[in-house]
Each structure stands twice: as structure tokens, then as C-alpha cells.
Amino acid sequence: MIFFLFKIPSLLPKTNPIPSFKFQSLFLYHSTSNEVEKFASLLENCRDIVSLRKVHACIFTLGLCQSTVLGSKLVTYYSKFGFLAESRCVFDRIINNNLSLWNAILVGCFRNGQCSEVLRLYLNLKKNKIGFDGSAITFSLKSCVDLGSFELGKGVHVDAFKFGFSKDGFVGSSLIGLYSKFGDMGGASKVFDEIAVRDVVVYTSMITGYAQLGGQLAYEAFEFARGMQSEKIDPNRVTLVSLLQAAAQLEAFEEGRSIHGYAIRRGIGCLDEVFETSLIDMYIKCRVPTMAACIFGRMKVRTIGSWNAVITGYLQMGQPSEALGHFYAMVQENVFPDLISLANGILCCSDLKCLREGKSIHGHIIRIGYQLDLVATTALVDMYSKCNNLIQARKLFDVMETRDVVSYNVMMAGYLQNEFAFEAVDIFTEMVRIGSKPNLGSILSILSAFSYLKNIRGGRSVHGYILRHEFHMNTDVANQIIYMYARCGSIFDGRQVFDSIKHKDLISWTSMIMGYVYQGHANEAIILYRVMKREKLDHDYITLISLLQASSQLGHLSLAKEVHCHLYRALMERETPVINSLITTYAKLGKLNMARNLFEHTTRGCATSWNAMIAAYGMHGNCIEALRLFDQMKKEMIKPDGMTLTSILTACSHSGLVEDGLQVFKCMREEYSIVPCEEHYACIVDLLCRAGRLEVAYDLVRLLPERQSATALSALLAACRMHWNTEMGEVIGNRLLDLEPDNPSVYNLVSNLYAESGKWDEAARIRNMAKKRGLKKPPGYSLI
């Protein structure tokens, strides 16, 4: 035994030698306070777990383990090095009523993230009537915050009040943090008022609470900062970071710049990465990217947090190209991206529709073995949807282990952007079936889907859900309901919703005006516009386009001229969509010269303007001019789009230029890389039918997929009736009835075909089929 005792000093690190004294005497006699102090000093000098264990071995061998002072330090340092099991073992061996020992294990458990254990120990303290001090209450409150246990936190507050700790600044700050975390700033203010001596920590807790809640409450953070100044208390770095967060949320540039100036004068936050990142975030959200770029450029050490702040800021400002540029710069500087950076990079590719770059980021995530979280996976689904790769988007969506309402909304939006409204409805149905509660985005998406499908029954059911759950109070939802009813032909219901909106915005008025125009009620649209002007509500270019469409329906040239004059008075003559609509309106009203003059004296840099003028020539049967303009467009290096080719094919069809039209149709894929859509096929079928080449048109239609053949079949059926080709007409009519069983125009066409060929029984049968389905073709009317 004596040999073993003499060997013990050699186990300790050479830098921390045990003082020379006789181990035999230590072993034989009770330890004195002086010896405990020496071992306590040794424990404080331990720099790693190895040296700590060696000192612990000496303490254990020499019988000093029951010392509360040494036990507390062992508990603390084992926890500090992350060895909570050993810490707990020491605590269990010498457990007694000494509060410092309990505090040591409480702090250790909190620092190692075991908040549940902290609260269990706190309850044991209370049960054993050992008592509390500020440290035990503070760390228990922090654990309640981390665990989201507000009720238990309020119970700790009661204990703090009973034992007189609620007036303590340290405890009071933790209580403010508790109430702020759960959005109860009234409770936080009461705690603040009870604190006897308020220091910078107390004020900072209140400022941080208001800053984190955001919204208009962030103004209160500045009020507390003023109160802090009036009490001659100087803010610290944490205070300024919280004030910058409040300024960023309020987009309060002047206040943010003042905080920045104060920090420079006092030398606070210099070379501090958190403070500089907060400054960058504030300047970006206040729409001053030059200052943010200046601060970012001067940072000596750019961590992943500062890069993320810059990239996120540019994304929020609607500058995805700048954000993606910084993402690439970050990678080039060998800063390893985290999941937040990668999600931001994916969002950039989503907004820019850069599929290739998005795929490379996705591949990088797979290579490095990152486990995709919900945010990153949702961003990938959004990116693939916006880049027209719905198959990959749906695959990612299907393998998601957990889905929230945002992921469902993104998948719905992807289907709607790609015009798959039925699939969007299926996604919404699945979301409701699994019990996920729709939010505002879900409601807007499903209303858009039913609007696209013109499904009045589905739209009414969603409207009922909206009324039951009080979504109708939201103006955006009400506007979408108006649009849905207008699209579904129920303009009266749309007007009722419009009249019920308490606070109508510009979109409300424009939606109702567009609804009237869409349903052919141009007079009502113009009357509503006059009412809107009396309400002194300003308009935008969409309102003017709706007015021009109304003037086209009414043949109202003076109204079109009035809108034209207004453009110049309001300095909106560069609003290309309105100019294009004016060109179309003048053409429809027979004023081709005015349309041509407008086109030649305005911007011609976009394909849409050229399309409008080509369509105007086509309306007037001037195909030669349309083709000339098409050639000129190519010479000026303006790439034609699908609408350009639709206008050219229509013009060729109206002028009977079959070969020219076929040549344009042939070069769509080869020269312009445009895949023909349903409208293009309908135009070329109409062109062939007008020339009497029904067999060629029929051969073309038979090759089309069902989704793209309805319009072309309708044109071919009308041609069969015109050319008395009853046999082909019957085949096409039956196919069309299968494709569009709820379209009254189809039944009318097929019935007329049978009637004109003398097959009155068949004509009656088709009309009865339409009657049983409740279909009725709207009667024609004249505006004269």
C-alpha cells in the first residue's frame, strides 16, 4: 500500500505537481481545510479530462471524496469537459443538502443540453426542502425556455417570488427571457418593474424580447433603449445587436445607422463577427445593399453566418442573381456551406429557373451525405417545380418523411405553375385527409386550381370552408374568391363577395372589373371603374388593360383614346403591356393605322409588342404585312415565341396562304426550338380545313395526344359540317364528346351536323344528352 501511495504523484501532469507532503499522514488522518484547498487549486488548473481523472484518483485514494467543496468542483469540471455520466456519479456518491453541490450538477446538466434533468433536479431540491438560490432558479428558467414549458416556468417564477429572488437582476433577466419567448411581453414588463436595481443585462433582456417578437412591437425596443440612456446605463454589444435586429424588422434605416455610428464611437463590435453580421442584415433589409457590401468586404474573417446573412438578404430583396453570385464566391473562398447556405442556393436557382445549377447543388448535398431537413427538401421541390421538372419534384415530395403545410403548398404551387390543376386539387385533398390544417397559402392555391378548372362546385365548397374558419376577413382571399366566381361564370356571387369586403384594395377593384370583362359585361366594368375613381383610389396598368378590353367589347373608340391620353398624362407611356393592349384594341376597332403608328413610335425591344402588331395585321387579313414584320423581327435579333407563331399561323389561315403556314409550322421545332402546343395545332388544322384539305388535317389530329386535340378537333368538326363530310364528322364528333362531355358547344356542333345531313333522330338524341346533363349553350347577342 505504501508503494502504491508513493507512485501516485507520478500520475499527475508535470505542469501541476502535487505539493510535497507525506501521503502517509494524509491517509491516516482526517483532511484539513488547507489540504482541501490545495486539491481544489489542482482541479482548477486541470486543462483536459486526463489530468482531471488523475487528480480525482488521488482524491479518491486519500479519502477526500466526501468533501463537498472538492465534490462540487469535480461535478463542475466533468460537466465542463462533456463527461456528464462521471459528473453525475460524483454527485450521487456525496449527495447532501449542500446547495453549491446541487448547483454544480444543475449547471453541468444545462450546459450539456439535458434540460429535462435540470428540471428534475430542481423539483428534487424543492421536494427535499433544501432551498434555492439565484443560480438554481436561473438555470431552471432557461431550461423551461429550451423545452417550451411555459407553465412550469411560471411555477419557477412563483418560487422565485416566494424566496425573494424576483427582484434580483440576474433572475429577473431570465424571467423576462421566459415571458418574451412565449410572447407575453405584458408579463415581461411586470417582471421588469419589480426588479430593484436594473443594469444593462435587465434592459437588454427587454430589448431582445421586443426585437425577437418583431412587427410593430419592435418599436418598444427603442423605447427601452431611450429609458436605458436616461438612467445613464451604457449599452453593450448584445444590446446593440438586438437593436439592429429591431431596426432590420422595421426597415428603420435612420435608427440602424445611428446604432452603427454609436458602435463606431464607442469601439463596440469591432471585428466581432456576430455584430458585423447583424449590421449587414440590417442594411440589406433597409434596402441599402451598398453599405452591407462595404461592411462585408471589410470583414477580416467571413464565417458561414455572415455569408448566409448576405445571401438571404439579397434573396429577400428579390435579387436572386446577386444572391447566387455570392453563393459561388463563398464556395470559391473555401467556406464549407451548411444546410442553410445550400437551401438558399437552391432558392436562388428556383427563382432564376436555373435547373442545371440547382441539380449541381442537389448532387453536392448527396455526395457529402447531408441529411436533408424539411426546409432544404421543400426548397428542392420548389426548384424542380419552377424549372418544369415535376417528375423529380414529386419524387422528392413522396420520399419526405414528414410534411408540413408549407411543403404541401409548394407542391400545389408547382402543379399550378405547370397547369396541372387536377393534381393540385389531389395534393390539397391529401393534406386535409391526413389532418394538416390549411393555411392562407393553401386556400389561395386551391381557389386558383378551381378557377383554372372552372369548377364552381369545388369553389363554393372552399368558400364555405373559408366562411367557417374566418379566412374571408383576409382581403387576398376575398380577391381570389371574386376571381374564381368570375372564371366560373357566376359574376353575381363575385359581386356579392366584392361588396362584403370592408377594406377594398386595388386588386379587389381590378379583380371585379376583370371579372365583368371576362363575362362580357363591359358596361358594368366601366361603371365600376368610374366608382373606383370617385373613391380616389389610384389604378395600375392592369386596370387600364381591363378598360381597353371593355372598350373592344363595346366598340367604344373614344374610351380607348381616353386611356391612350391618360398614359401620357400619367407618364406611363413606357408601360409595354398597356401599349400592346392599345395596339390590339385599335386593331379590333378597325384603326389599323393608329395601331401601326403606336407600334413604330414606342419600344420594340420585346417580342410581345411584335406579336401584338403581327396579330393586328392577321385580324385584318393582311398576311403579307404580317410575314414581312415576322422577317423584320428576325433581322432585329428578337427571338419569336409561341405567341408569335400562333399569330403568324392565324394570319396565314385567314388569308388562305397554306404553304406559307405549313412552312412556318415546320420550322417551329427545327429553327426556333418551340414545341407546338394545342393552340398551334388548332391553327394549322384550321388552315388546312379552310383550304378543303380535311384528310391531311385529320391525319395530323390523329397523331396528337388527347390533352392537345380538343381545340383542333372542334375546328375540324366545324370544317366537316361546312364541307358536308358527314362520315368524318361523326367520327370526330364522337371522339370530341368523349373528350369534353361537359362542353355545350360540342353537343351543338354534333347535333347541327346530324340535322344538316338529314339524321334527325341522331340530332334529337344528342340534344337530349345535353339536356340531361343540364348543359345549355349561351345565346348570342349583338352590341349594335
> Pairing-aware structural class of the strands and helices?
mainly alpha
> In angstroms, what separates the terminal alpha carbons?
121 Å
Q: What general form does the structure show? A: elongated
* Fraction of residues in helix: over 70%
Rounded Rg: 38 Å
- As residue ranges, the low-confidence spans are 1-31
PPR repeats: 199-235, 303-337, 404-438, 505-539, 606-640, 743-777
InterPro entries: E_motif (IPR046848), PPR_At4g14850-like_plant (IPR046960), PPR_rpt (IPR002885), TPR-like_helical_dom_sf (IPR011990)
Protein name: Pentatricopeptide repeat-containing protein At3g03580-like
Pfam family, one: PPR_2
Descriptive tags:
Serine Threonine Protein Phosphatase 5, Tetratricopeptide repeat; single chain; elongated; PPR_rpt; 784 residues; mainly alpha; disordered N terminus; E_motif
Topology readout:
Elements: H1 2-7, H2 23-28, H3 33-44, H4 49-61, H5 68-80, H6 84-93, H7 99-111, H8 115-127, H9 134-147, H10 150-162, H11 169-181, H12 185-194, H13 200-213, H14 218-230, H15 237-250, H16 253-266, H17 273-285, H18 289-298, H19 304-316, H20 320-332, H21 339-352, H22 355-368, H23 374-386, H24 390-399, H25 405-417, H26 421-433, H27 440-453, H28 456-468, H29 475-487, H30 491-500, H31 506-518, H32 522-534, H33 541-554, H34 557-569, H35 576-588, H36 592-600, H37 607-619, H38 623-635, H39 642-655, H40 658-672, H41 678-690, H42 694-702, H43 710-722, H44 726-739, H45 744-756, H46 760-772
Helix pairs in contact: 3-5, 4-5, 5-6, 5-7, 6-7, 7-8, 7-9, 8-9, 9-10, 9-11, 10-11, 11-12, 11-13, 12-13, 13-14, 13-15, 14-15, 15-16, 15-17, 17-18, 17-19, 19-20, 19-21, 20-21, 21-22, 21-23, 23-24, 23-25, 24-25, 25-26, 25-27, 26-27, 27-28, 27-29, 29-30, 29-31, 30-31, 31-32, 31-33, 32-33, ...
